[in-house]
Amino acid sequence: MSGDILSQNEIDALLSALSSGEMDADELKKEQQEKKVKAYDFRRALRFSKDQIRSLTRIHENFARLLTTYFSAQLRTLVQISVTSADQIPYEEFIRSIPKMTILNVFEVTPLDGRILMEVNPNIAYAMMDRMMGGKGTSVNKVENLTEIESKIMSNTFEQAFDYLREALEDIVEIEPTLSEFEVNPQFLQMVSPNETVVVISLNTTIGDTSGMINICIPHVVLEPIIPKLSGHYWMQTEKKAPVPEVAEALQNNIQKSIVSVVAELGTSDISIQDFLMLDIGDVIEMNQTIDQPLTIKVGDIPKFIGQPGKVNKKVAVQVLGTLERGKEDGE
């Protein structure tokens, strides 16, 4: 008996067989006690749990949203990118599943070991390049005949796009993505051994009327140092990091050493442009404030204190009389 749930018809048929004698209950018990043998394919070793795959899916869903915003701005058209699947398969199987000629971007992700592969379907890549060159986003698949200029445009575009993976992974690890290789033939690219387990995240991409897949291939060696952080328990943690005393003290010292401007405002006056142009040496401008009223002292551009003018050692000075409360800056 397997652990599958039986339908009502299957239950009725089983009871009918037991009651008619076609099936012996003792034989069923004996069969249950026997050891079950399940075939295991070592070439398809599952090295990630379902929980870890779900965490990687969440990370790349965020990555897909960031890419949607980036490409929509760069291409000046509507772009839709979403995660369709996340699977762990042998590297050789992934290479066989992609087109014989496609766009392959290989990235170093310091400080993690290994490299990550970003495979872009040629239809998508050419649609993007056509939009960036002022076209309507028409896709012409001639990836085997890429010119040097086309290769440079594509590699620059995807290098900037992949930089958003840093933001998607920032809660787990700080990485510095760097494009290390640009290739069009998968047979010339050997990142890991053929039987090495890789996680492949497939992103369905639509640009105007053109659609295709962007595949992110991540070898196990890259994820190995951060596997403990891919568990659901890690994501559910809500511990607040205590502030580091040294950092707080350094910030306080820097703030105390900051230089700000302090201005004592004698008053204001409104004059016409014509009067302003007619001003000459010796002219007097009447302020809207009498000499017996306190001055407004501003720190930066913000009124903070009230004071009165005076002299200290034959130098003009201002004595602070009090703090200016908010809402009373205009003499309320």
From TrEMBL:
Protein's cellular compartments: Bacterial flagellum basal body; Cell membrane
Membrane-crossing segments per the record: none
GO molecular function, one term: cytoskeletal motor activity
Keywords, sorted A to Z: Bacterial flagellum, Cell membrane, Cell projection, Chemotaxis, Cilium, Flagellar rotation, Flagellum, Membrane
Pfam family for this entry, one: FliMN_C
Membrane topology according to the record: Peripheral membrane protein
Domain of life, source organism: Bacteria
Gene Ontology CC entries for this record: bacterial-type flagellum basal body; plasma membrane
InterPro entries: CheC-like_sf (IPR028976), Flag_FliM (IPR001689), FliN-like_C (IPR001543), SpoA-like_sf (IPR036429)
Database matches in Gene3D superfamilies: CheC-like, SpoA-like
Gene Ontology annotations of biological process type: bacterial-type flagellum-dependent swarming motility; positive chemotaxis
UniProt domain Flagellar motor switch protein FliN-like C-terminal: residue ranges: 255-322
Family (UniProt): Belongs to the FliM family.
PANTHER family: FLAGELLAR MOTOR SWITCH PROTEIN FLIM (PTHR30034), YOP PROTEINS TRANSLOCATION PROTEIN Q (PTHR30034:SF6)
Record protein name field: Flagellar motor switch protein FliM
Originating species: Niallia taxi
Classification lineage: Bacteria, Bacillati, Bacillota, Bacilli, Bacillales
